[in-house]
Amino acid sequence: MVGMTALWLPILLSAVFVFVVSSVIHMVLNYHKSDWSKLPNESDLAEAFRKAGVGPGNYHIPHCASMAEMKSEETCKKFERGPVGFITLMPNGPPAMGKQLTLWFVYSLVVGVLTAYLTGRTLGADAHYLQVFRVAGTVAFVAYAGAEPVASIWKGVKWSATLKNMFDGLLYALVTAGAFGWLWPR
What we know:
Strand order of the largest sheet: 1-2
Shape: elongated
Structural class: mainly alpha
Strand content: 5-15%
Number of helices: 8
Largest sheet: 2 strands, antiparallel
Helix content: 55-70%
């Protein structure tokens, strides 16, 4: 068993490495451009949201407050007529990239802490690089990519976007595993 205090460096460096890899993915490679589409008549739809006073939040259309309502003839017609979907609206104004990037880095630190905890409880200080890589990589992959299919299963997110996000999660897991294997206390 390896204590958490002995793993502070791989926790920190894995978060830095993940941050760099994700920056390259989103600023240089741009393979996520097709994940989102522009709405036709975007300005008309935005004006309709403003006019209706719709604020930030998660919305479902058509919305049902209960299973009984979902089964009603009126609601079934709404589903047949469409549109059917989920809408997430954020606060007005330019994206708060500083806040989002900070939260992403903090999340990567949390993944590093969880990876350190499980890997440190599973392996001893005498563990070889590949043993550490395997355990740390598995934990990090589950944390970065494990829940991605839920968005496609329940919210209609395109499977192509989900698979790309899972591929990103694999890359993040690999650099996390590499950092832990490299800096594992011996």
